Amino acid sequence: MFYLFHGQDTYSQREFLAGLLAKEGDADMLSLNTTRLSGKVTFNELQSACDAMPFLSRVRVVIVEGLFAAAPDKAFLDRLLAYLPTLPAATRLFFLEADKLPDSHRLIQLADKEKAGRVKLFDLPKGGELERWIRGHVAEAGGRIAPQAVQLLAANVGSDLAALGNEIEKLLLYAGPEGTVTAEDVTRLSPYAAEASIFDLVDALGGRRSAQAAALFQQKLNEGRDPFYLFSMFTRQFRLLLQTRSLLDTGERAAGVAQQLKVHPRVAEKLVAQARGFTMPQLEHIYRRLLQIDVETKTGQADLLTALHLLVAGVAAEE
Description:
The chain has 319 residues and is of the alpha/beta class. The chain is built from 16 helices and 5 strands. Strands 2-3-4-1-5 form a 5-stranded parallel β-sheet.
């Protein structure tokens, strides 16, 4: 059989693939009978992998990633489409594509006609679908999560399902088997939960409002925020701003930024507004300084809290 999994939700693609392979017998033997190919492969390479007999296993698995993104020529497609209906019965051939293929694609049309062909589209969940995904993922793990926590995760992490999965696992461990993940837990534990005050602080830095930036920074310290937490938030925020500024400079808009960075549209709008307060050289300079602070504090050359005070004062003062 041959399968085409396509669409930007590559995380769910791999989960679904793992579920199918788990039904095919012993995992170790299946691994020995699995061939992985990527990008621009020759037809002979593909056919050779598919025609190989399985060794001490019921099936032979061939996984091909990004083949159609590499734009194979017509001759390759002609040979492939002629070959697939003759695929050995023991072979399970999977095509994984990180972008959606058009309905007119020749492989999709062939799969519609062939009993041995399967096509599944994996779109990134958004809005209500994303929140349902979070609730479902928590339920599958045997946990519970408050509605506000679901909304906060969806808004701040967006459709990056791999990151969401990691955050959910961490939050469930923190809440315990009998607990419920709350919005406060998300704010406390998730580095993706970029709080409004962090956005406000970066806004103040971008607007060169040094007094406000210093006050907001001190406020977070007074609330008991660990300097390492604040440093991680700064680093993440300025990394996103660098990426956003780069996208803006190529003509991208907020919707494109949300898609490229896999963040919620509301977060993307804030990032776009903030990025416009900085030039690319300024952001590169700040990010290099953050990397320098990381090295200096880890090697004992500087105190993190002092370095952050100097960073806030220096960025707000720069023109």
